[in-house]
Amino acid sequence: MNVRAIVLAAGKGTRMKSARPKVLHELCGRPMLWYTLRALRDAGVVDIAVVGNAELKQCLNEFGVRGIVQEPQLGTGHAVQVALRELPAWAGRVLIAYGDMPLVDDGIFSRILATFDARPGVALAMVTARMPLPSNFGRVIRSGDNVRAIVEERDCDESQKSIDEMNAGVYLYDESALRGAVEKLNSINAQSEYYLTDTVASLANSGKCVIPVDAGDYRNVLGINDRVELAQARKELNARLCAAHMREGVTIVDPERTYLEPELLIGRDTVIYPNTSIGRLSQIGEGCVLGPGARLSNAKLAERVIVRESVITDSRVGAESRIGPFAHLRNNATLAAEVKIGNFVEVKNSRLDRGVKANHLAYLGDATVGENSNIGAGTITCNYDGQQKNETIIGRDVMIGSNTSLVAPLRIGDGALTGASSVVTKDVAPGERVAGNPARPLPEKGSVTAAD
Ligand code: UD1
Ligand code: MG
């Protein structure tokens, strides 16, 4: 595709009042800039340069784009001057977008590319949107069907302020026309900045054709300049994410109180109750019930899992398991099918086989628990000896009595049993029953001792 993109992201972000570059502030789990880059790539634009300050440039590797440093930041026009001086000239089109507009999707980029192609001889196509007033966007001054100028809000007179067609901040230039216009900019305006938007009047005045491309709904092009706008954009983006999943067969009881991120997989007929957040590439199977109050991050759930008021991070849960209320699975907890984890149970870096139950008040860390074993209320794997973490291996069909302390490293054989309040410090053989502190073998069932 004969197009390259320059994304402007070096601005001081003064209105954010932040130590971080504005475009690295996150919404729905991704930095603002991530959305712009994804939309450009989805529209087929692969040659992308990002203009940033020195701090942002250091972070650009993870985005897989070329970084260009603009220091100092003297305005959007200056940012483009700096970029074009660094990029070799070519006889093509250049798409310019701002990194503070994460709601602009690939549809808008595709539309501006198609419109430009359909109108030979155009020097610039730019996206505009009708918006409710007042607005801090630049105003579009028209001459018939063409654009004659953009006036920044702070430079507008009263009559210009009443114009409700705004510059959305997405431009597609013929690059040689842009190179000429951008070098002519000056900074005589309310902000003493070099405005990219002044290239519009410069091109129009020299007889070149500048055409508008309608953005449709103005909410598609809202920019983020402060934290109020950040919250508004997050809300809009989240609404879009929820709508997309609902259209694919997920029930979301209250989308305004459900917090999603891009790139999630959620199976159909899953129901999500309010105050639930799902993030970091989580995958949810079909027919699950999540929430109210579930927090999932990098969680992989199979089918028909129920998670209520619980936190699951970096963990997997098998089909038809039930988690919560008030449980915490973290750091590689791996649960097979039909596992039950109840109130105030924490599972960390452990594997629980099919049918395991830990229904109340327990900590299982660095443990393996075999099929159908029952972990009594108050059980703790004492996995840390002050120096290192140690493993607890529990076999199948084991009964761990209430309030058992399992002092790792430890092995409990298949079918074994520990009595209530045991402190188990030594391995327990298959079928063996132990109790006490420290736990000792109990007499065989039915055996008679001398004391009897
Ligand atoms: C800009 C437009 C305005 C438009 C609005 C849409 C200009 C002069 N004005 O205003 O017409 O309606 O966007 O959201 O372009 N940046 C740099 N270097 C700089 C200054 C800014 O890279 O020296 C970057 C910023 O990081 C930001 C983008 O350019 O991502 C836009 O700058 P910003 O200050 O947010 O411009 P607006 O006031 O929003
Ligand atoms: Mg802005």
Q: What class do helices, strands and sheet pairing give?
A: alpha/beta
The gyration radius over C-alpha positions equals 31 Å
User: Which superfamily, in CATH terms, is the homologous superfamily of the largest domain?
Assistant: Spore Coat Polysaccharide Biosynthesis Protein SpsA, Chain A
Distance between the termini: 93 Å
The low-confidence parts are 448-452
Roughly what is the average pLDDT, rounded to an integer?
95
CATH topology of the largest domain: Spore Coat Polysaccharide Biosynthesis Protein SpsA, Chain A
In total, the number of strands is 38
Helical residue percent band: 10-25%
CATH architecture of the largest domain: Alpha-Beta Complex
Q: Treating each run of at least 4 consecutive H or I residues as one helix, how many helices?
A: 8
Bound ions, cofactors and other small molecules, one mention each: uridine-diphosphate-N-acetylglucosamine, magnesium ion
- Total individual domains: 2
What about the largest sheet? 24 strands, mixed
Oligomer: single chain
- The first-level CATH class of the largest domain is given as Alpha Beta
- Which range does the strand content fall in? 25-35%
